[in-house]
Please model this.
Amino acid sequence: MSTAAHSAQGSPAKPAPAKPRTLLSLLLHNRLAAIGLTFILIWTVVAIFAPWLAPHDPFVTDMANKLQPPSGSHWFGTDNFGRDILSRVLYGARISIWTGLIAVSISFLIGMPLGGIAAYYGGRTGTIIMRVMDVLLSFPSLVLSMAIAASIGAGLSSAMIAVGIVGIPEFARLMFGQTVSLREKEYIEASRAIGVKDRVILYRHILPNALAPLMVQATLGMGFAILTASSLSFLGLGVRPPIAEWGAMISEGREYIISGQWWLVTFPGLGIATSILGFNLLGDGFRDVLDPRLRSGK
Amino acid sequence: MKKVKLLSTLVAFSIMLAGCASSANPQTPAATSAGTDTAATAAPVKKNLTVAYSEGGTTLDPAEANDLTSDTLVLAAYDQLVTYGIKTENGASIANTEDIKPMLAESWEVNADNTVYTFKLKSGVSFQSGNPVDAEAVAYSFERVAKSSSGSFLYGMASIKSVTVKDASTVEVTLTNANHNFLQILAMYTFSIVDQKTVETQGADYLKTNAAGSGPFKLTKWDPATEAVFTANDSYWQGAPSLGKVTLKFTKEASNRVLLLGKGDVDMAIEIPPKDVSTLETNKALTVASNASNRILFFAMNNKVKPFDNVKVRQAINYAIPYDQLLSGVMYGQAKQMKSAVASNTPGFTDAGYVYEYNLDKAKALLKEAGYEKGFDFDFTLGSGFDDWEDDAVLIQAELAKIGVNMKINKLARAQFLEQQKTNNLTSYISKWTSFVNDPGYHLGFLLYGKGSSNYINYQNAEVDKLWEQANLETDTAKRTELYKQAQEIITTEAPWAYLYEYNRIVGMSNKISGYAFYPDEVIRFYPLSITE
Model:
């Protein structure tokens, strides 16, 4: 980690995504971030190639072979309908990664401009926007997403929207903080002085400089989104049966814990745990790499 | 629109929070708090009973009670004019709903054309408050049922025209027409006799959260989120109960109820999941009472919605259901195949017309005849709260997929499901039904009679309606049964539902408990129970 930090010392800390090679090598030298990245890569590959990797059809019921413990033919065992849990966990990765991506995109694409506008223009507009964000933040995130999902109606897309909305204030506040400090920078003032449009200043000058912390938030937000979406499915507000989703699989299997069929909940649980761990480690690694103060301190 | 919905959800949520706060300090009914201390010191030490229940109940008002827990609470605190007898079947005690026994009414007389019943009340019986149980209270209680939103339908089902007080201990009930179910309906919790004087002094809302009856137990605490506590009414007119205290622990998760029972933390648990029965049976300290009930489960198809308006399509669905998988795989044998719209242990049941079996070829052939050779998509609404429903739905979905029919499962919370069901617009759903009066007339009258209040799938058949109306007026039991059988055969052939199964009522209890009897309404009566050491 420290050697990587030294080698990158000379490069400017600002638009990091513009130098992917440096960023990647920095990340790979951060051991925890590398582990996180590995988990994410594995799950992404699994999500993309699930139909080819899965040994069985995840939706075909086989009551003669229900509740079989892990064995050679079913590595992760079978559920109460005789469906192969390994196949369902693999297919579940698709839903979880996809839900996370969509939800974070919603949060990012709505939260970022809101925060930017609120900080750049300030005044009443800014106050209104940021107070609304405060209201959203004042609710426990799971409860708020449950309320939103329930009012839209159960289903995968409503879960995505609910999780996305809940994530908006985080991005808005982060962007707000960044913009407030960037707004006073000389190059922004210079742009304003030569009559560059506000829209252009926000998009071309402020956004790229504020992107680093937003990237960190987006990565950490993926983990949060996967967990919240799984929680919604666990509570019956997510996917429809028979779709394989980790949270829903745990919900279906929880009745079987006391009768000893541990594999129904363990494997989807591990899926959730490893994918969230992956995003959190990567997010932390991003922060370490992108934050010049942390880096120079090494 | 969405915003309004969201806002209302938030408002509802804050109300819910407020509700949680108030239930942390549950109401202690005023009437009972005074007497309990003295009674406890005077009486010998009695055994206490703790029961794990699934839901917390919604009201204590007998006229409005409409769910298992509310009904249980009402029957513990109130008495009715008449009650059901008990018979023994295969060593198990089972209520015989056709055998009507006196309770608060000592005796009754019926006029020649079965339209006027004169009840003579037992003398010297008083409510828990000390007020006497008199004819005025009976008339008042019946009037409350007539005006209630939940019980008024039963009032109509019982064909009650008027209730007249003849003297302090005589009540005359006049019916609009002879009704063979009248006394059976009177024995239900809805027709509990309430303490008129207490209600009038405490106000109309008093009964929602307090009990004012003459029953064997006094309510000392009711908090729908946690528990309900009853203490024995030692001056009960039939003799003091042998239990000192009855506590109902509200435990929603079935696996938790099984754990509590297995560890001996509760003496009794209701609604045991079928898959846990065999494990519990190996526990020597426990007895599992699994009785065939008249609770049925059916796959309902809206007869007005395409393609289910076509009888062939409905029959095809009947042929595509994996009955054996449902019975053995989902219910672990704790259920019985259902072969008529009426439960098989209901008098007058017939399986005439039942030809269905799991046969995908027949299902396909029928779909072809109906013009749906390539299959179709349809919406299915799954109400939450019952694990077996979801299992059934997933299995049926998998079979239907094999004949090209795509069943789209929409999950709804139970309250929303019940709300939507009432609109008569759901395309298809799975639902259960228990007829508290074990009679085909009562049962079909709700569910499949054209104007039935729970006929949510728009089943209309003029002949069935005519048979039902005819049977309702028929006083001869044999002739009436014949009419009901004809109606059942038509219904089974037309297949407005696919019949799934008849549940067993499963109650697990400690071996020390004696006196348990199964009632078709599935409510446990605590008075006859005792615990031995």
In short: Residues 85-121 of chain A form the longest helix (37 residues). Confidence is low (pLDDT under 50) at residues 1-13 of chain A.
